[in-house]
Amino acid sequence: MAQNILVIDDERAIRKALTEILTFEGFTVEEAADGEEGIKKIKENNYDCILCDIKMPKKDGLEVLQFAKEEKPDVPFIVISGHGNLETAVEAVRKGAYDYISKPPDLNRLLITLRNAMDKKVLVAETKQLRKKIAKGGSEMIGNSEGILKIQDTIAKVAPTDARVLVTGENGVGKELVARKIHELSNRANGPMIEVNCAAIPSELIESELFGHEKGSFTSAIKQRLGKFEQASGGTLFLDEIGDMSHDAQAKMLRALQEGKITRVGGEKEIKVDVRVIAATNKNLLEEVEAKRFRLDLYHRLSVILIQVPSLNDRRDDIPMLVDHFLNDLCEEYKQPVKEIAPDAMKALQQYNWTGNIRELRNVVERLIILSDKTITKKDVDSYILK
Q1: Which domain covers residue 295, as residue numbers?
Q2: Same-domain check for residues 31 and 49
Q3: How do residues 113-134 score in pLDDT, each as one tens digit?
Q4: What's the CATH code of the domain at 211?
Q5: How is 80-136 classified by DSSP, letter by letter?
Q6: Domain count, the chain
């Protein structure tokens, strides 16, 4: 299928020359005689690349560029520049143009630039598609129980905002999955999501981990280190097991949330950070507050939105869907045909007491795939599930 190029130039001779060259090279070419006509065509049609003069009547090339970047941001835009407009052409590249070509255009350079621009467009499209695929597979919430549907509804409402979210629930229920889904549906999806397991970091190191440190600030600080807040700037910071954070770190966390600024360990400069914080815990933080182990003011800062993830025992109707999902994923991973599961085996899984929640269910399904024959029977479940 021929790729579609739009040529925008007020010089008829240039337009015709470019059209002849590009048509000969197998492209489909449309023309516009000024910026206004070019904007109209961009709005109404889809193009694989746009070639646009800088100096034109009605609307100049920079105005067309601005419109194109807003209306069709993924379409590469190449500026055609006379020698007197070189600085403007460079400015256009700074504002999002892929490249610029000087007049009169050199045929070889024009074709190389054009093909490179369209190759980049294809790569960008493929990358976006892969990210969507990874996001779907990595953060798919399986189930249609009332509790899960309520969480999905809350996520849809909360994700586009920058509101802080506190996710609570037992170990293994999928709190990280909720945090990832919020990030992926947010306006920060193209930014990083940085995870910190507060329970896994010694209390004396948590401050350095979160806020970073300057060279020489303590014995082993042989170079400057950026903390998780700075790494997550423009994205999301996920604080898992927030209930295990030390009191000193809680106080500094509170200041960072209040002011949107952090100071590295051993540093004096305040650094502004743009971070959305999502926290998670398996503890009852209000009980922790009563026991003087967690700050009430930090709890209120973190819990603008509360999401309670139900245990697997509270959503047994979702177990068949979860089992089917794990069967498909794990059999594909092990490169073997998807195994069937007998109805009485599924019923046995639904009746089991899942103290480890979804994490335990996945482990059990993996064990059954490895140790069972083509069909997973109730006997297999009774034999291989750890009572």
Answers
A1: 139-310
A2: yes
A3: 998 988 888 887 777 666 555 5
A4: 3.40.50.300
A5: EE-GGGHHHHHHHHHTT-SEEEESSPPHHHHHHHHHHHHHHHHHHHHHHHHHHHHHH
A6: 3
